[in-house]
Design goal:
homodimer; Quinone Oxidoreductase, Chain A, domain 1; Rossmann fold; 2 domains; six-stranded parallel sheet
Chain lengths: ~325, ~325
C-alpha cells in the first residue's frame, strides 16, 4: 500500500509499505479523504520536528471505510463509513479534572502517532464516528474541523438572537461563524485577506476588513450599540487580541480559539470593568463530533464551497506549497 | 456639622458646613464609621483628580443611622441602622446587558458624587441595606468590601471542597479567602509582605511568599497534584498575572479582581490548552450585600481582627499617611 511520509525540511515522500498489524481494539480503515489542517502545515514548516518522529505519516481530518476489525472490536462492521476523532487519552492526571479530551497525557493521533495520509490506517475503534448515508466521504473529511467549531460555539454558550463576532476568517473562523449562525446568532466576521472576505461575503456574512474600517465602530453599528455577546479570537495575532476586549458588552464572552505561542499584551482592565469572560476552548468532545456530523448531513452548511481543491496523495507536497503561496485558500483535501 | 474635604495634593481639611437639603427619595444618615478603601488612597494620591470635584467629601465604606426621611421614602424609619451600597445607576445603555451595577452611566457614590466622611450624609433610599441588631456599626463599615468579596466568590462559582488560590493578601484578597473558606473551599494565599503573611497565617490560612518559594510547586503540593479549581488575581502586578495562568487545572477559573491600569503580558496559550476561564468581577449586586451582612452577622469571620486602627475624622490626613507608610496594615476606619 502507499503511504505519505513527512521527511522533514518541507518534504514528503510516497512509499510503498506493508499494512501494519491490526492490534486489539483497533479497526483498519480504507482511507477516502484527508484534509490538510493548519497543524499539518506547521509540521510541514518543520515547527513541530521535536514532536514528530521523522519519517512519519501525518493527517487527522479524515474519512474512510471500515476494512477489517481487530480483536475485541464491537459495534462496527466491515463497510461502515466513518470519520475519526483523533484523540487517544492517556493515563488520567488529577490536573485533567475528568476532561479526557485535553488530559495531560493525551496523544493526538496523526501528530503524536501515525496519521491518515495513507491507503490503510489502523485506529482504536473508540475514535470512530459513523457517517450517515446522506453525507459524502468528501464532506466526511470536514467533520473534524467542523467539530472544533461546534466545541468553540458550545463553550461560548452562543444563543439564538445573540451578536457574535469572529476575529479571523480562515477555515476554523468561518466554520465557527457557520455553526453560530445555525444557532440563530447574528454573525460578523473580521478578516484582512480580500479574497477570503469576498468569499465570506458570498456566504451572506457581514464582513469587516479591520485594516480599512474601525472594527469597534462596525460592531457598534452591527449590534445597534449593544456590542457583542460573544467574540471568537481566531486570528492568533496581537492586533486581534488588542481589539477583542473592545468588542463585548457587559458580561460578554471571548472564546480563545487561536494558538498564541507567544504571550500577548492584554487589556485586563476591560475584563474587570465590563465583567467579561475569556473562555479557552481546545479540540472537541464526542458530542461535538455528533453535532458536526448532524450539521454536515443536514446540508445547511456550505461545506462543499469551502473546499478549495481536492488533490491526489501523490501531489501532497505540491498541495502544501500551494497552501503557503495562497493565503486566500480555505480547505485542501487529499483523495487517497 | 463637620465634613472632611479632599483638597487635592494629599491634603484633607475638616470644614464646618450646613446639612444639605434632603431630596426626594433620599434619606439623611447620621454617620457612624467610614472605612478607607484603596480607591480613597488613590484619590489621596491625586490619581483621580480628573474624576473628583475638588474640594470633595469622599468615602463609601460606611455605617450609619437613619436621621431623617425625604419625600416618597418608604420602607425605612428613623433610627434604622444601615450600610450603603454606593451605586447610582444612570440611564441604561444597550451595552449594559441589563446589569445595572456596572452600567455605562453608573455613578459611584463617594467618588462621582459626595461621600460619607461627614457627620450627616444624604443618600438615595434604594442604596440602603439594614444592619441586624447583632452586627455592630463598626463592622457595618466592613460590609462594602465584604460584599466585593462575596461578588468575586459568587462569580468564581466557588464550591465546597474546591481548591482556591488568592494572589495578593491585602484586605480584599483576605476577605475573598474568608468568603471562599466559608463556602467550604480549601484556600491558599500568596502574599509578599511578611507582616501580612504572619497575620493571614494566624487566621489559619495556608500561605506562600512567592518571593521565597515556588508558588506553582506550592499549589501542586497543596492540591495533591490537582492544581487550583479557582484563582483570584488581586495583586494587580505583572508577577501575579504571569503566575495566575500556571495555577489552574483543566477548566479551572481565574477571577480578575485587581484593577490593571496598564496592559499586561498574558499567557493566552494556557487558556486554550487547559480550557481555563478568566472571569472579570467588579463591585457587587444587591444579593452580595445581603450575603455580606449575613456572613458578618454570623460572627464566623474574623472581621474585628482585620481592623488595624480606628481614628477620628479629624485625624484622617494622618491616617492616609499611615496607610502609605505601613503596607502591612489591613483595614483603617474613621469614627465620625
Amino acid at each position: 500500500m502507499n503511504a505519505l511520509y513527512y521527511e522533514g525540511q518541507r518534504s514528503f515522500q510516497i512509499k510503498e509499505t506493508e499494512k501494519s498489524a491490526l492490534g486489539k481494539g483497533e479497526v483498519r480503515l480504507k482511507m477516502a479523504y484527508v484534509g490538510v489542517c493548519g497543524t499539518d502545515v506547521h509540521i510541514y514548516h518543520g515547527n513541530m520536528d521535536t514532536r514528530i518522529k521523522i519519517p512519519q505519516v501525518i493527517g487527522h481530518e479524515v474519512s474512510g471505510v471500515v476494512e477489517e476489525l481487530g480483536e475485541d472490536v464491537t459495534g462496527w462492521k466491515i463497510g461502515d463509513r466513518v470519520t475519526v476523532r483523533p484523540l487517544y487519552p492517556g493515563v488520567e492526571s488529577p490536573i485533567d479534572n475528568g476532561f479526557k479530551h485535553i488530559g495531560q497525557n493525551l496523544k493526538f493521533i496523526g501528530i503524536d502517532t501515525p496519521g491518515g495520509m495513507q491507503e490503510y490506517w489502523n485506529v482504536p475503534s473508540f475514535t470512530l464516528h459513523h457517517l450517515p448515508d446522506n453525507l459524502s466521504l468528501k464532506l466526511g473529511a470536514m467533520i473534524e474541523p467542523l467539530a472544533v467549531a461546534c466545541h468553540d460555539v458550545r463553550l461560548g454558550e452562543v444563543k439564538s438572537g445573540e451578536y457574535a463576532v469572529v476575529i479571523g476568517g480562515g477555515p476554523i473562523g468561518l466554520l465557527i461563524a457557520l455553526v453560530a449562525r445555525q444557532k440563530g446568532a447574528n454573525v460578523l466576521i473580521s478578516e484582512v485577506n480580500k479574497s477570503r472576505l469576498a468569499f465570506i461575503k458570498s456566504l451572506g456574512f457581514e464582513c469587516v476588513n479591520p485594516i480599512e474600517a474601525d472594527l469597534v465602530k462596525s460592531v457598534a453599528d452591527f449590534t445597534k450599540g449593544a456590542m457583542a455577546d460573544v467574540v471568537f479570537e481566531v486570528s492568533g495575532v496581537q492586533a486581534g487580541v488588542s481589539v477583542m476586549t473592545d468588542l463585548p458588552r457587559v458580561r460578554g464572552r471571548i472564546v480563545m480559539v487561536a494558538i498564541h505561542a507567544e504571550q500577548k499584551s492584554v487589556d485586563l482592565f476591560r475584563f474587570f470593568w465590563r465583567e467579561i469572560k475569556l473562555i479557552g476552548a481546545r479540540v472537541y468532545e464526542p458530542e461535538d463530533f455528533e453535532e458536526a456530523i448532524e450539521l454536515a448531513a443536514s446540508g445547511n452548511l456550505p461545506l462543499e464551497e469551502m473546499i478549495t481543491q481536492v488533490s491526489l496523495l501523490a501531489d501532497a507536497e505540491e498541495v502544501f506549497k500551494t497552501i503557503d503561496s495562497n493565503p486566500a485558500g480555505m480547505k485542501y483535501l487529499l483523495e487517497i
